[in-house]
Amino acid sequence: MADTSMMDASQPLFEGCTFTIIPTTLTQDRVIEVSQDIEQCGGTVKSFDIDVGRITGLEELDYIVSATTDFPDYYRALDLMIHVVKPAWVEDSLRINKIKNPRTYSPDPVLFLSDVVVCCGDGIPEGDKEAIFGGVLAMGGQYGNQLSKLTTHLIALSMEDPRCEMAVKKRLNIKIVLPHWFNDCLKVGWRVNERPYLLPDPEIMNVEAGAIPPTTASADIKDATNPEPAGPPASPPAYLAQPRAIKAFDGKKVMLGEDLNLNKDLKDVLTGMIKAGGGSMTNSVAQADIYVCNYRKGEEYVKASQANKDVGNLSWLYFLITHDKWTNPMRRMMHYPRPPPPGIGNFQDYKISISSYTGEARVYLENLIKALGAEFTRTFKQDNTHLITAHRNSEKCEAAEEWGVNIVNHLWLEDSYADCKEKSLTSERYTYFPPRMNMGDILGATEINREAVKKMYFAKGRKKEPEAMSNTTAGVSRSHTDGEAQTPLAGKAGRRTKTAGDVATPARSRIDGKENETPGTTGSRGAKDRALSNLHDVMEDANKYQKEAKRKGGVIHGGRRRKEDEIVDKEKRKGGRESTASKRSIDEVEADDASTEEETEETAQKSKKARKGPIAPIKYRMLVSGDKRWQGDGDKESKDKARLREIGLFILDEPKKVDLLCAPKVVRTLKFVAALADGPQLVGSEYLDYAIKHNKLPDAKKYPLDYSDFRKQHGVDLSDAITRAKQNKHRLLKDFTIFCTEKAKFDVYKDIVAANGGKCLKWDNRTTAVTASKRKIESQPKEVSQNLEEDEGDVLYLISELQKTEVKLWTKFRELAKKHDMIPRIVSTEWLLNVAMAQKIHWKPEWELKEEDVSKK
């Protein structure tokens, strides 16, 4: 390969480089256009022989231009260090008269941000910028320090950011998104839809956004939903008989495996269709180009796989016949032979149901569950072990939470199937659901891990049969995956022998001496390396923050967990899990809070079987706060909660859809205050005493919570507050942007603000990164506006502490309010607590913080 690093400026850009263009997903006109662009700049284009269906003289190529990795020579090209790039790479290189980094134009789906060029707004802190840029580079994208016409995404906190204003002024065709978009891409390991994150009105900040939009049918599972299709395949439609198709059977010999169990009539039909496409049949694996079978086992399967022949199942064969073009059988889950029984990992022990998937998506997941070895149930019941859902906004998800059933997205199924081992549910990738997103949008995007399949089923020198290997790994896969620390990207990147990023970049691509130069970037390579090295540290901090945010109970006071909480956790993890949990850090244990509900339901199930009686439907959802009956006694807590669930009372761990709020007295904890926004009925601890003692639910009216002392002290009648909460329906603080300092326990009060429909932002003395606007009370419904009569509409609140270190934060906050023509009001936490507990906006002068009060302290 020619060294063009010292190329003369007058030398044509692609001189000495040889290309071929894969026509699979390109129109004939597009192929001609790209070919002409390459040849006009000195490059040589070897035409792709449609009749052969493969690249001849692959070793002679420098670049392969393709919109997809789904062509027969893709993996061999990577092994030969040949760049595979999208057509846009040619255009963009010509635009700047420099050969751009091929990796950022790879069609490899693992590099899911390869079409993205990111720029950050001025309000994004420098450390966050480096983390974002490093992550974008790692996932195949590009970044620019300056806004340009090539920018596709501008990450900002508000439209008042100077770069957002510039983008609007210049009418740049870019997407302006919140940083949450990038974070969610990283968590899921795929590019998520930008719609919910778009400024100026991102859906994720709208508490009344409505139902999550349904997904459209995924092209990745079309004609790939069932490994054993019923009936013969359809003949290819006439429009497919065009030059761009890579013919599937022309000159190919096909062998049908015995485990397909085809009847003579169907076998004759398939034989006729294959011959009509220019192919022939054979009974010899050695002579075959294509081997079709049902399972990943048997001598013929192993020999065909080791010889790198095309090995697929009947569904894949039907796809080839119907579309008359080649596709990689590992590209789609249901196109590759299934694992032999009993399946993968411990899936044979699982009963799995589905929620929020319809049509082909539902059929695909049903068959994937069965292929893994699990039992699929159409009806979701309490004995289900897992619920696969596209989002958490469904009745099935609510029931799963109440029953302690694992709620996971479909990526858990696909990754387990692809990697030939059960993936651990401790990975956030499988339990996270981006807000306002339907996970069905990325259904079927995962490909079979060819290295994992090779190692498990047909690696040379294997001494054990596939079935034995499967059983062996099933016993150890769980303890192995629990210790995995891979990020979603790292896990997916492991699915290739080599990616475009693994291949050394030939000297010809470094004409300007800056291999990773990107639009508008003036920084050195070292800056990008530092960004990449910082990404791990930043994401580790982010993960710790996420775990801290999920912590349940007692967080109103901040600091470490209470000792008694840790004791309860240890008790709940006894019985098969203690040995694992005892070795994990506090942060890791806190991330597993969901296991408490799992233990509760498990106990309930055992109790149910012992009594052989039905569990009553849930009558009330109760939140308990301030009651210490279970403190330090996890076993008693588990048993009591299980018994209460059996009689129709479900004890919640967090304030969400609360019917009954139980406490010995009025307490101002996060749980209690946030739960008031639901308008629950208030009951005293005596209600629980009766229910546990008599094993039945009493009339809640007989055990009201005594709040007379609270009324005298704070002047708030909670019965009136509950009435107002039902009127407000979580809209009391709608349109409010409330700022809070870290010392004032932002992590706590943001949840109270959110429970009442508002937005709470951490105040870190940056006026350029935030925005605020006046509130229009008349826009609220009448039942809500009557509780907003004392809201002046133009007051901007900062929750702070009466400390000298806090005073320095107040000046810039006042500047922010003035900038937006609003009145600054710096308040103590008492203001928010009283507003949230009274469920109406009101004001007392003693809640305001002033500099002179600090000096008196």
UniProtKB/TrEMBL annotation:
GO BP terms: DNA double-strand break attachment to nuclear envelope; double-strand break repair
GO cellular component terms attached to this protein's record: Cul8-RING ubiquitin ligase complex; nucleus
Domain of life of the organism encoding this protein: Eukaryota
Residue stretches making up the BRCT domain: 9-107, 107-199, 347-417
Pfam families registered for this protein in UniProt: BRCT, PTCB-BRCT, RTT107_BRCT_5
SUPFAM superfamilies from the UniProt entry: BRCT domain
Transmembrane segment boundaries: none
Biased composition (Polar residues): 469-478
Annotated segments matching region Disordered: 217-237, 463-530, 545-612
Gene3D superfamilies for the chain: BRCT domain (3.40.50.10190)
Basic and acidic residues bias (residue ranges): 562-587
Composition bias type Basic residues, residue spans: 549-561
InterPro entries, per the entry: BRCT_dom, BRCT_dom_sf, CellCycle_DNARepair_Reg
Biased composition (Acidic residues): 588-602
Protein name from the UniProt record: Regulator of Ty1 Transposition
Source organism of the structure: Didymosphaeria variabile
Gene behind this protein: ESC4
